[in-house]
Design a protein that fits this description.
Blueprint: E1 3-6, H1 16-26, E2 30-36, H2 48-57, E3 61-67, H3 75-80, E4 85-89, H4 96-105, E5 109-114, E6 132-136, H5 151-161, E7 167-171, H6 176-185, E8 189-192, H7 194-197, H8 202-210
Parallel strand pairs: 1-8, 2-3, 3-4, 4-5, 5-6, 6-7, 7-8
């Protein structure tokens, strides 16, 4: 089953609660929440209080992607704010295994993300220690970037290393065509922002990604 996680980064930040309810009504499998620190990536976005507001507005699973240095320091407060899974970047810390372990100790799922330029050789040793692998299909930091097709080879290699049920997520430049390519390569979780929010009918956009 293909899961679609709309990125609330593309929503109207002035009414996050209403946007969360809208995504729920449109049939989203989860809400993807990007948290950036302005250092690991050149952008600032939402924080724990905004995450808590989204959590109060919807029972949907909250998939939190943190693009911040020293992610360990933020795990507990994000878990308390409603994160159901926290995905952090391999490149943001030297304590990858310790951070994955701590996330799970907080009672939520752990995900590990990789930038497009990071060698795939870094991926396999962590696959049995996380619940989701995120392979970025753009350089992290901003929405609306062009999809990087070279990441498809990494998706295919990752799928060969795990069970069919293991979650391989792609994020960046995902529209109907790039979603098809990612699914064929082995991805089963699609994060999409601009494509979905540009559709006249959000629910139709979600369906168009699900049915490849």
């Amino acid at each position: 089953m293909i899961q679609v996680y709309p990125s609330i980064l593309s929503a109207d930040f002035g009414c996050l609660a209403a946007e969360a309810k809208r995504l729920e009504a449109a049939g989203a499998d989860a809400i993807h929440v990007d948290i950036m620190d302005g250092h690991f990536v050149p952008n600032l976005t939402l924080g724990p209080r905004a995450l808590a507001a989204i959590n109060r507005a919807t029972p949907l699973f909250l998939d939190v992607h943190i693009m911040i240095y020293n992610p360990y320091d933020y795990i507990e407060v994000l878990a308390q704010s409603g994160a159901d899974r926290i995905t952090f970047h391999f490149e943001a810390t030297e304590d990858v295994e310790e951070t994955l372990t701590f996330i799970r100790r907080c009672g939520i799922q752990a995900g590990l993300a990789f930038r497009p330029e990071t060698s795939f050789s870094m991926v396999p040793k962590y696959l049995d220690k996380c619940d989701l692998l995120l392979l970025m299909t753009v350089n992290p930091g901003f929405g609306g970037q062009k999809f990087l097709p070279e990441v498809l080879d990494k998706v295919e290699l990752a799928r060969k290393c795990v069970t069919p049920e293991f979650l391989i997520q792609v994020d960046g430049g995902i529209d109907r065509e790039t979603a098809r390519q990612c699914v064929q390569a082995g991805a089963n979780v699609l994060v999409s922002g601009n494509y979905l929010y540009s559709r006249p009918d959000l629910s139709e956009g979600i369906r168009s990604l699900k049915h490849q």
